[in-house]
């Protein structure tokens, strides 16, 4: 009986030792969210875009349970950073506004009220390779590719981002022993790891971002970054534009690849948009038919005639 008790006691000690050793195993290190975001910025800097793009911008809204969509023909010059867009959408061409009553003047003034606009959110002066502040605009030296690698260091310097592949050199030995070395960085966001998710089939890090300063300029609040390529596949912005009623709500942005380059595919308002006295329960902007152009036609936007939907400048 004593031997049985000894065997049981020995087994208990072994089990406890095994459990203790499992609990003591070091956990896997969490990926650094700042490094992930820095890698995502570098991904943008390494993109290659044609110097001339032509594409179509679709603006879709849902009003009273009915969806309406209008399309605008647009082009982008990556050398001058100029977006040209035809201010008349296909919807306006198919549904021209017909004035009611008779136009006449009274003492030199037009009695009739101005005709209402048919642009749901404004004429979209938008480009499909906008980076939402992750990388500034750098002119493409024609005819070489946009954002060539020769400009990467200049962009990184502007954003105070270290080269992810570069390790700081150790400081030289001093007469007084050093306890620690601190490397300071000028960061625009406080970044946290929210987890991992799959976005359109891509395994992504999910980051949360809080601006350290100037929240109107640093607008990204969440980012889904590819675990392998560091391509952004989804972003959430606190606000998305600099003009019009669509600036009052946050937006979610989705991305896609076209001919080996990264572009915006769709931007969706995360809340109803009030515009021109109407409530749009859903609003979205989509980029379609993106293609390289040898020399797209220059489209002049009539000055002051229509409200435009604009992006903040990439500084």
Walk me through what this model shows.
- The chain has 315 residues and is α+β, with helices and mostly antiparallel strands.
- It has a single domain, classed as outer membrane lipoprotein receptor (LolB), chain A (Clam).
- The protein has helices at 2-23, 33-45, 90-94, 152-159; strands at 52-63, 66-77, 82-85, 105-106, 109-110, 123-125, 189-199, 202-211, 220-226, 232-237, 251-258, 261-269, 273-275, 278-280, 282-292, 308-310.
- The strands form 4 sheets. Strands 3-2-1-15-12-11-10-9-8-7 form a 10-stranded antiparallel sheet. A two-stranded antiparallel sheet has the order 4-5.
- The longest helix is centred in the first third of the chain and has 22 residues, at 2-23.
- The relative contact order is 0.20.
Number of domains: 1
How far the N terminus sits from the C terminus, by CA atoms, comes to 83 Å
Shape: globular
SS elements, strand count: 16
Radius of gyration: 28 Å
Q: How are helices and strands ordered from N to C?
A: HHEEEHEEEHEEEEEEEEEE
For this structure, the CATH topology is: outer membrane lipoprotein receptor (LolB), chain A
CATH architecture: Clam
Helix content, binned percent: 10-25%
- Overall pLDDT: 76
Approximate strand percentage:
25-35%
């Amino acid at each position: 009986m004593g031997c049985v008790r000894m065997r049981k006691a020995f087994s208990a000690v072994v089990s406890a030792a095994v459990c203790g050793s499992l609990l003591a195993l070091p956990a896997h290190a969490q990926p650094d969210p700042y490094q992930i975001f820095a890698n995502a910025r570098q991904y943008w800097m390494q993109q290659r875009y044609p110097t001339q793009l032509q594409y179509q911008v679709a603006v879709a809204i849902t009003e009273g349970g009915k969806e309406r969509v209008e399309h605008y023909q647009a082009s982008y010059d990556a050398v001058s950073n100029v977006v040209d867009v035809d201010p008349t959408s296909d919807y306006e061409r198919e549904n021209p506004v017909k004035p009611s009553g008779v136009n006449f003047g009274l003492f030199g003034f037009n009695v009739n009220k101005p005709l209402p606009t048919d642009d749901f959110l404004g004429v979209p002066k938008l480009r499909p390779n906008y980076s939402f502040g992750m990388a500034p605009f750098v002119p493409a030296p024609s005819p070489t590719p946009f954002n060539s690698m020769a400009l990467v260091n200049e962009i990184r310097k502007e954003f105070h981002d270290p080269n992810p592949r570069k390790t700081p050199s150790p400081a030289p030995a001093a007469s007084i022993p050093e306890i620690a070395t601190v490397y300071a960085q000028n960061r625009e966001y406080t970044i946290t790891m929210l987890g991992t998710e799959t976005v359109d089939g891509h395994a992504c890090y999910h980051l949360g971002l809080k601006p350290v300063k100037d929240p109107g300029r640093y607008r990204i609040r969440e980012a889904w970054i590819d675990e392998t390529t560091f391509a952004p596949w989804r972003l959430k912005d606190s606000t998305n534009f600099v003009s019009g009623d669509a600036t009052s709500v946050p937006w979610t942005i989705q991305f896609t690849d076209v001919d080996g380059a990264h572009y915006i595919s769709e931007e969706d308002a995360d809340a109803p948009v009030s515009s021109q006295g109407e409530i749009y329960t859903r609003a979205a902007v989509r980029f379609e038919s993106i293609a390289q152009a040898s020399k797209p036609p220059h489209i002049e936007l009539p000055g002051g005639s229509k409200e435009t939907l604009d992006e903040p400048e990439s500084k």
